From TrEMBL:
Keywords: Membrane, Transmembrane, Transmembrane helix, Transport. This is Amino acid permease. It is found in: Membrane. It comes from Hydnomerulius pinastri MD-312. It holds the Pfam family AA_permease_2. The lineage of its organism: Eukaryota, Fungi, Dikarya, Basidiomycota, Agaricomycotina. Its main location: membrane. The chain crosses the membrane at residues 32-50, 56-76, 103-127, 147-167, 174-199, 219-242, 263-291, 311-340, 361-381, 387-408, 429-452, 458-479.
Length: 512
């Protein structure tokens, strides 16, 4: 594609954005392969072993990939019509009835923001725990204290933030490097693990169908679903691709392709990564006994038969984790910036600024997103259980935010997306329905403890945190609405607080 063609496409994208009610503030520098997010391939190892082992790891991965694909297609359809960094909360505003669109948009916006901040936190903190696992290869008796883990987390977060802050114009190239690193890394792991197998080889009956629910304490059927938790988490950030909408060439075409293709790419990558590991898996009891709770380093060391071999394969996974931390930190900053642009957070005029001297980086929004992660990370110092609740909250918030516009469109008879450039056709209603039902089930799943009997350590507080955030956002909505009523000299009554919205032109943004 020539320079003139890119300029013409960007001009069309700019006009389309203006029709949606916004001015072009970012520079469009990204193509399809720059926004295909990389997923945490090692995420299913620990909890899936607790949930049942190989059968859960492999078939659970395939099952969740198939179910998530329906959500990806549903989001791609809506995104193709409304390609904007605001994402799901803006889609709710455009799809919901005039009576409730402001309320739904507000609720969705805070689900989106809490989900973005906590999912980014979980990635950076998870990468820090990978560092601990890597150190454990050479120092197996060392158990990191909460403070040590937190300091490592600060280092990972600082690196991710620095890349987003000072190397924004190089991030598209870094994303390409990430894709190459991931693809080559999977091939290297496949060859090395298959060739070495120092811990022994497993028969197909174990690798493809081995199932043991005893570690979870649940009945076998529910234990299998518990084992799906990390796989679901792996795909939780799929909708964050939309946060990059205003930096993408031809977003109505590229965004839906990126969202819909990311699941098959992730699914195939995951299967190729998991199969050789399942055929060479060391003793599960040893892996579950790792003090850090992250068995990836010990697993690779046992399979390779040496510390050096285990560290080499661990380093591949660590690299993927760092690349993912950079990408998701960038996306979270864009989501924060878009929400501030719509005046939905305190000091919005400050956090909605774009710095022209740092390659159009929303510096203040990036720093806010990073600061929130750093503060939430402090919870780990007091209770790892309370901190782990935020991982569940991330999936629940993002899942609910994705499901809302899909459900609204479905209840509207899908009339609003009839002219979407990426249209699902006659199967659209079925795809949308499966996606919504899957998210509803996933929210219930992430509210359950992974292990029973439940103790203070194994208790899952995600549902309590989820409800708490919902209550806070609802109260804030009421306060903000009252303030706007007073400013406009309107009467205040309970019904108006729920259904009130200023009569705006249809292309205007939700909260302006």
């Amino acid at each position: 594609m020539g320079t003139k063609d890119v300029v013409d496409i960007d001009a069309v994208a700019r006009e389309g954005l203006e029709k949606l009610g916004y001015n072009q503030e970012m520079t469009r520098t990204r193509g399809l392969f720059h926004i295909l997010f990389t997923y945490g391939l090692a995420a299913p190892i620990a909890t899936s072993l607790v949930g049942g082992g190989p059968a859960v790891m492999l078939w659970g991965w395939i099952l969740v990939s198939a179910l998530t694909q329906t959500l990806a297609l549903s989001l791609a359809e809506i995104c193709s019509k409304y390609p904007i960094s605001a994402g799901a909360y803006y889609w709710c505003y455009r799809l919901a009835s005039p009576r409730y669109k402001l309320l739904f948009s507000w609720i969705n916006g805070w689900l989106t923001m809490v989900g973005n901040w906590t999912i980014t936190l979980s990635v950076t903190f998870g990468t820090a725990q990978l560092v601990v696992a890597g150190a454990g290869i050479y120092h197996p008796d060392w158990v990191a204290t909460p403070w040590q883990t937190y300091v490592i987390f600060l280092g990972v977060t600082a690196v991710a933030c620095a890349f987003c802050l000072f190397f924004n114009k190089y991030l598209p190239t870094i994303d390409i490097i990430c894709a190459c690193w991931t693809a080559l890394g999977i091939i290297v792991i496949l060859i090395c693990v298959s060739a070495k197998a120092a811990a022994g080889r497993r028969p197909p009956s174990f690798a493809l169908g081995g199932f043991d629910a005893s570690a979870s304490g649940w009945t076998p059927g529910w234990s299998f679903f518990i084992g799906l938790l990390p796989v679901t988490y792996t795909y939780a950030a799929i909708g964050m691709i939309a946060s990059m909408a205003e930096e993408v060439h031809n977003p109505s075409e590229i965004l839906p392709r990126a969202i819909s293709w990311s699941i098959p790419i992730g699914a195939i990558s995951g299967v190729v990564f998991l199969l050789p590991i399942l055929f060479t898996l060391p003793d599960v009891a040893i892996l579950l006994a790792v003090p850090s709770g992250q068995p990836i380093g010990v697993m690779f060391t046992l399979i390779m038969g040496s510390n050096a071999g285990g560290f080499g394969l661990w380093f591949i996974i660590f690299g993927i984790g760092m690349f993912c931390a950079i990408s998701i930190s960038c996306a979270a900053s864009r989501a924060t910036w878009a929400f501030a642009r719509d005046k939905a957070i305190p000091f919005h005029s400050y956090f909605s600024r774009v710095n022209p001297y740092l390659a159009d980086v929303p510096v203040n929004a990036l720093l806010l997103s990073t600061a929130i992660q750093v503060l939430l990370g402090l919870i780990y110092l007091g209770s790892s259980t309370a901190f782990n609740a935020f991982v569940g909250v991330a999936v629940m918030c993002l899942g609910a935010s994705y499901a809302m516009p899909v459900a609204i469109s479905l209840l509207n008879g899908r009339d609003d997306v009839a002219d979407a450039p990426f249209h699902l056709g006659k199967l659209g209603a079925v795809v949308n329905g499966i996606a919504v039902l899957w998210i509803m089930f996933a929210i219930v799943l992430f509210s359950m403890p992974a292990i029973i009997p439940v103790t203070e350590v194994t208790m899952n507080y995600a549902s309590a945190v989820f409800v708490s955030f919902a209550v806070i956002s609802a109260v804030w909505y009421m306060i903000s609405t009252c303030q706007r009523h007073v400013k406009l000299g309107l009467d205040i009554d309970p019904k108006s607080l729920i259904r009130w919205s200023i009569p705006l032109h249809w292309s205007a943004s939700p909260f302006l």
